[in-house]
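pipeline/complex-builder :: batch 7 item 3
reading input block
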Amino acid sequence: MSPGRLLRELGQAQNELPEGVIALEVVDDADLYHWTAQIEGPPSSPFENTIFDLTITVPDQYPIKPPTFNFKNRISHPNIDFKTGDICLDVLSDKWSPAWTLASALVAIRQLLGSPEPDSPLNVDSANLWRSGDTSAINALTRYYIEKYN
Amino acid sequence: MEEEKCWICLETHAEDVENKKWVRPCACSLTAHEQCLLDWLLESKNLTCPQCGSGIRIESASSVLGSKSIAVYDIMQTAYRTGLKALFIGSVAGASISSIYSTLFAIGAAQLRVMCPTDMAFKALGVSQVSDTEYKLLPLDGKRLTLIPMIPVCLVCSRMNNSAANGIISWVMFLASVSTPLNYNQLVSSLKPSEPIGTLWLVMEARLVYMYLYDKYILPKLSHWIAESFTYRRDLEMLLTNNANNVNQGGAIRNILAAFPNAFPRIDVELEVLDGINNAPEQPDQDPPVADNQQNRRNQEQHRIAQRRRARNIVVGVDTLFSMLSPLLLPSASSFAGNILGKLPFFKKMNVFSRNVIAGSILVVLNDLIYIGVTYLRAKDRKGLRIAAYKKK
């Protein structure tokens, strides 16, 4: 794939960003395949009022193949691997389509923060907590890890 | 109105300087470069528009024959690769099996030659003597191909006492006795003890009785002697040092002797003896102080693990392998002993094969007797050791 699409996305990101996405930029101007991003935790969720750093790795075949997003810091969330920061989100794997962009995928990830899918967990402890529905425990644990690692 | 662009590479019509081909494949407003869309559709295998969900059709420019040829080529390529894999795996497996088989066959043939007089061996191996110097190899039939490699297998089995070994021996004996096609009269006449096969049957039945008696009466004694001769002194002392304050020595020894199982496989005698020591129950009437109890148990557990590890090293080693394979040398020894036996008046008239088989059986029993005797002597010797009183010069 030509880098044309990534260049366009970069231009778009410098112009305007969707709501909740604070930053989206390439690490190195000469390399369009490694990006960093910042998103804001969605309101009325345990992740509220926090800014999360992500790294983005774009494959050569982008946008035919999806990019890979990783949280930089440890985060307690059912669909995010506690150690590696890998994200389990269907549109970033088998439901991927070139209609998604890096910016729109970040919006999807932000939504995932607010409404996890405990049925396809990468972090089973967190998933069990969310399934239990114990809101104060979820809040306490999530905030604890945010304070600890962010 | 938003400018039309390719929904995959995001290029707009205005930016398209190379004049690529654009397509509008479905009912909705999405447009794309044909090549971008093809890349995506062939990768995702999902021929629907992401926006409106209507199907997208791909047409092949090549003729029906062309696309069919590609399909046929792909299938053949897959089949070819699968075939190659199967050939590789098959040849490796086949080579190992055939090398094992031919080794067994060679050993079996050599053992037949050693055990039988020349004419009988030739008959068994399918060699026909045309003249004094000329021999002809007969084509090998199924019976020879099956039975000759089974000879070394049966020999190894003959020194094991378990149902599998007994079963293998019985089946091979049966197959060796019947002629093809099955002839009842011939089978019965071949079972006369004076006939070669009949002798073999007799010896194999005797083997079962012998093994039964050995396991029932001799093995328990043997394990006592082994324990008395070398094992328990060394290992028990360690056990006693570790539990010095709660195990009374005499009681421990009694426990150990009581804990010996009555029969265990010959090869594992040493292992079982050690396990017997390890599993010796604690003295119930001499409980240690409560505070020491846990520490003691932990010591004992560690000790057990260490000992068991040592026991496995002793038993499952090269020695065990050799002791399992040693029956393979039995035919040579039997034929040697059979020659000597032939000097005795009673055995002079007997056919050579039966004489050798009987000589072999005598060797086996002798071998066991010597082992039993030496083990007994070693135990007696060890028990008879005393520390001499100090003598002033």
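note: Chain B touches chain A through 13 residues (CB under 8 Å).
queue -> next item
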